[in-house]
TrEMBL record, chain A:
Keywords: 2Fe-2S, Iron, Iron-sulfur, Metal-binding
UniProt xrefs under InterPro entries: 2Fe-2S-bd (IPR002888), 2Fe-2S-bd_dom_sf (IPR036884), 2Fe-2S_ferredoxin-like_sf (IPR036010), 2Fe-2S_ferredoxin-type (IPR001041), Beta-grasp_dom_sf (IPR012675), Diverse_Oxidoreductases (IPR051452)
Location of the 2Fe-2S ferredoxin-type domain: 2-78
PANTHER family: BLR6046 PROTEIN, OXIDOREDUCTASE WITH IRON-SULFUR SUBUNIT
GO molecular function: 2 iron, 2 sulfur cluster binding; metal ion binding; oxidoreductase activity
Key word Cell membrane present: no
Name the UniProt record assigns to this protein: (2Fe-2S)-binding protein
The keyword Kinase is annotated on this UniProt entry: no
UniProtKB/TrEMBL annotation, chain B:
GO molecular-function terms, A-Z: oxidoreductase activity
UniProt cross-references to PROSITE patterns, sorted A to Z: PROKAR_LIPOPROTEIN (PS51257)
Origin superkingdom: Bacteria
Residues spanning the membrane: none
Domain (Aldehyde oxidase/xanthine dehydrogenase a/b hammerhead) ranges: 216-297
Designated name of the protein: Xanthine dehydrogenase family protein molybdopterin-binding subunit
One Pfam assignment: MoCoBD_1
Amino acid sequence: MPKFTLHINGLQKVIDTEPDTPLLYVLRDNLELNGPKFGCGLSQCGACMVLVDGSAVTSCMRPIASIGDSKITTLEGLASENGKLHAVQDAFNQEQAAQCGYCLNGMVMASVGLLNDNPNPNDSEIRDALQLNLCRCSAHTRIIQAVKTASKNLSGK
Amino acid sequence: MIELSKTSRRKFLRDIGYISVGFPLLSSCFGEQDPVVAARVNYEGDLPGSMRNASKVNAWLHVLEDGRVMVFSGKVELGQGIRTAIRQVAAEELDLELDQVEVHLAETGVTPDEGYTAGSSSVPNSAMSVRYAAATARQKLLELASAKLNIAEEDLILYNGKVKSKKSNQSLNFAEILEGAQIDMEVTKPVPLKIKSGYRYVGKAIPRKDIEKMVRGEEVYIQDLRFPGMVHARVLRPAGYQSKLVKVDDSGLSTAISGIIKTVVNGSFVGVITDREYQAVKAEAYLRKHSEWTPSPSFPKQETLFAHLKSIAEKPQSIRNEGDITTTPNGTDTFKASYTKPYLKHGSIGPACGIAMYDGEILHIWSHSQGIYPMRRAIAAMLKMEQEKLHVIAVPGAGCFGHSTADDAATDAAILALSYPGKHIRVQWSRHDEHTWDPYGTAMIMELEASLDANGKIKTWKTDVWTDSHSMRPDNDPATLLDTRYLENPVQLKGRGYLGGGHRNADPYYSIPNMQVNAHFFNGPLRVSSLRSLGSYTTIFSIESFMDELAEKAGKDPLEFRLAHLEDARAIAVINKIQEMCNGEKLEEGEGIGYAFSRYKNTTAYATAAAKVSVDRASGTIKLLKMWAAVDVGEIINLDGIINQIEGGMLQAASWTLKEEVTFEDNKITSSDWRKYPVFRFSDIPEVEVAMIDRPNEAAEGGGEVSMPPTGAAIANAVYNACGKRVYDLPITAEKILG
Ligand code: FES
Ligand code: FES
């Protein structure tokens, strides 16, 4: 089986796998990361989101052979080394923005991706950025609030 | 409105104080002054059903070696925050810090058998059992400490895990008191319960500890469990409900796909085991291509589904018959309306997963089933094994909202584990199978008929409800598990499950002198089971839509009309509250507000919902702008937890109301992914506001389902008020506004 070198959460990992294996399966099955979740495998729900070079994308249909040198960050890679949570993680906890939490990985990653691009999004920009992400428990209003709180905390207001 | 406390724990401790105001908190920790301990009052009421088979203290709690307490519950975490609610009540009665309580959720042989985690029963059953067991334990710990220290009980203080003397420095922690034993005594009445005014945690907004783990990716879901040497598997579901396997050719499988360990064929059950997960995904696709199935018969036509359901219904059963509905008042008309609701999906964001390992003697199963003991009975019956040879551990899954596919995935894993012993086998369902093999919430029809008297009050009422079963949950009948119907010696379903869920709330909670309710049961074409709030969502959608129609006929304001038919002060209070919340809400052209009320099951929690919508008359587009709820669940355990549940319930029900419908054509379910079964996305989400009416002296009811039934009707009424179009057939779509 071919080998692939992934840049992930600040580390380099060499993976032995078939080239068509989607990134999600590599992250979960080979690298034993639990952050990204399997929700649909169809790029319809956002549960599997990761950051690729700082932008939030789904990982369930992205073959490992297409990743190249891109830098990948998963939920596990958001907190700083001393364990301090990223402002978005902190805000989701503060707002208690989850029920089962299965969608949370995608929500947090999509929000980080948004704030990377646009540190002060308004309500409709937040909704747009999260449009792909489904939450069946329907914690949406808290999630929107969490993104606002994170944005406020990041800009030190 | 109750303000959510979003404060740090320090502020939280300062705010709630501890019974006597101005008293230095946690002083026992500092060794100086003793805390004032809240008084106890004897509870003489009923003990919960869950205590029937688990009546001893040690069934519910153990003292750990370090003196902390482990609480057991037979319920599972589904995102409803039950772990936190149970921790709160245990810490409360035992005067512990929250951190001093661990919660162990369902595991066979370890926790009590509490049946299913369903029907908003976790708080009234599990949390209340823990409350009584903890209160009994506290009393016993005081008695034992008194004997050990030779100090009278009234000179002892039990606080933060210690029993200490008021007069000296002598103290013992709980483990020292018990010396390795547990409290093996019956919980009997009277139970000395903490006086509610002395509560530190119950009724407060306590943050859930698991959410912090979730944001770090550290919360472990069933899908995240890993065992050394674990292998992966997929099951090839049949081509249709009644398809049989003609042949499967796996001769080229190992050449086409690497990592193949084994194909398992048993009748029409086909599973494949691989080293890596994605290999199993590919292997399933390969086998699908290389298999042949008999065709399943066609479903009825979607367009004529309801006529079909009526045509196959059994003779009606009388559910309620009071007074005489044929007494039509002079000079008034009888009004009629008919409502329909399609099949709906559970739509969990995480498709089902099950893990099993057979060690040669015991079959271990990890599952996010809502009822691990009943599932164990079903799997044991299917495999013809003794129940004691199955060990089932509940692991959290994604929110599932009723009986979905968790038990089926566990069964898949169990079958494969027996054919490949010694390894942990992880079966993951695909989105396609999750969407097409889900036991849906059944389609329903409601026909209503009522007459008004001269004062505009309802004189007669008649409900006819057409429904399939509302629970086919696994239990003794092994055919409740999907696989049982496809194994070599297939077994078909014997019973019809819980039909009664279909007429839940079919009799209005209003004072009506003459009332008749009839249920017409059918055995419909799609697989069904329990979906959050069962029949209530449909019965209340219809009843509360009809109430608005009747109010209009009577020339009354819709809320006043409801109040005129209510005597229960708690029901009146939630209606008054919603009126107050929506007062002064401004409406633009094309906007409307609608209301609806229900008391869940007519015996538990009260909820009034309001919705504000705008409707574009030209395109039919409906925009849900805001929703409100005023809710009374009796005693509140976790204020933020219950609000979270109520908000989520309203939004999910709004999604059902405006978007959702299982579709089928020929012999296929066609709503097979999120594109073909759209649900609410962020662009659809309105503002939501919830007010709780706390009633600490009333029984604590669960809140997972209460907000769903009135939400649908509130939206339908709002749409009518916005544009004058009443929609009787769910979902309420632009097409129906124009039609
Ligand atoms: S799992 Fe990737 S979008 Fe759903
Ligand atoms: S919290 Fe359960 S799916 Fe979002």
